[in-house]
TrEMBL record:
GO terms for molecular function: ATP binding; hydrolase activity; transferase activity. The lineage of its organism: Bacteria, Bacillati, Actinomycetota, Actinomycetes, Micrococcales. Keywords: ATP-binding, Hydrolase, Nucleotide-binding, Transferase. It comes from Agromyces intestinalis. This is Biotin-dependent carboxyltransferase family protein. Residues 39-299 form the Carboxyltransferase domain. It holds the Pfam family CT_A_B.
Length: 299
């Protein structure tokens, strides 16, 4: 046990788990979501940066869809009650185990009583923590993901929460398979596909969507990200009946400022969708920081 933890050794009978000491701004249990329930009004939810969660799971020898933690910003602290391999991916910054800085995007081993701390990200916005064995939370509709809009799945993680680990896989921890690239700290370019209501907007506005440089607004969460810039003008006035949405749909509300809908979005919306962010670009949206420049290209 590390002396840095200032805690007594965990008893041998204590179940292997992660005791959350400080959750940071928002800590959620997420896997790759619960697709296939839109007809019931249930969004897929799941990790916003799906690639980062899958990578973290691969580093500790777990399937890509195993449940881990999605951690917004910095300030997360937790204690391992038993020795366990883990990995932190996604955002880029200071990751410390018992006070010593360790490399992100690599498997690391914690002893019983070890303290894990995540600093404020220097790049990106969301960390992903995977542990060997995954998190043994109760699934809802086949997923352990937290849906912040609908309130489905595990509740948001608070200080004092004890997250039990699942059984360790028989396979050994795989050899290090290369570091992931840190999220960019400059302009981010997202690929777009045509939206179902593009004709509701003027030709000039449709072109401006690609010509302009937008900025990620502070009005951003797991439901959607608003972009600041010159408002988009509509050609067709009036209301649009509610219709289905998919992850990455870019709705344009009356303000004219586009909103990229994400994993916890409503499954229907009443604003016209001018375009849709291609699936390959959605992970980058999860890591956008307030004020970060955003440009679009045709997919």
């Amino acid at each position: 046990m590390s002396a840095a933890s200032g805690l007594e050794a965990t008893s041998a009978t204590e179940a292997p788990a992660l005791e959350v000491l400080e959750p940071g701004p928002l800590a959620l249990v997420e896997d790759l979501g619960r697709p296939g329930f839109a007809h019931l009004g249930v969004a897929p939810s799941g990790a916003l940066d799906r690639g980062a969660l899958a990578f973290a799971n691969r580093l500790v020898g777990k399937p890509a869809d195993a449940a881990g933690l999605e951690l917004l910003g910095g300030g997360f602290r937790a204690r391992f009650t038993a020795s366990r391999w883990f990995a932190v991916t996604g955002a880029w910054g200071a990751v410390r185990l018992d006070g010593r800085r360790i490399a992100p995007d690599a498997a690391a081993h914690a002893d019983a009583g070890s303290i894990l701390e995540l600093g404020t990200p220097e790049r990106g916005l969301r960390w992903y923590l995977a542990v060997r064995g995954g998190l043994d939370e109760q699934p809802v509709l086949g997923s352990r993901s937290t849906d912040t809009l609908a309130g489905l799945g595990p509740r948001p993680v608070a200080a004092g929460r004890v997250l039990r680990f699942g059984a360790e896989p028989e396979a050994s921890v795989p050899a290090f398979d290369g570091a992931g690239a840190p999220p960019p700290d400059g302009p981010v370019t997202l690929a777009l596909r045509p939206g179902p209501r593009a004709e509701w907007f003027t030709d000039a506005s449709r072109q401006a969507l690609f010509d302009a440089t937008w900025r990620c607004s502070p009005a951003a969460d797991r439901v959607g990200v608003r972009l600041d810039g010159v408002p988009i003008e509509r050609r067709v006035d009036g209301e649009l009946p509610s219709e289905g949405t998919v992850p990455g749909s870019i709705q344009v509300p009356p303000s004219g400022l586009p909103v990229i809908l994400l994993a916890d979005r409503p499954v229907t919306g009443g604003y016209p969708v001018i375009a849709v962010v291609a699936e390959a670009s959605l992970d980058a949206v999860a890591q956008l920081r307030p004020g970060q420049p955003v440009r679009f290209r045709h997919a």
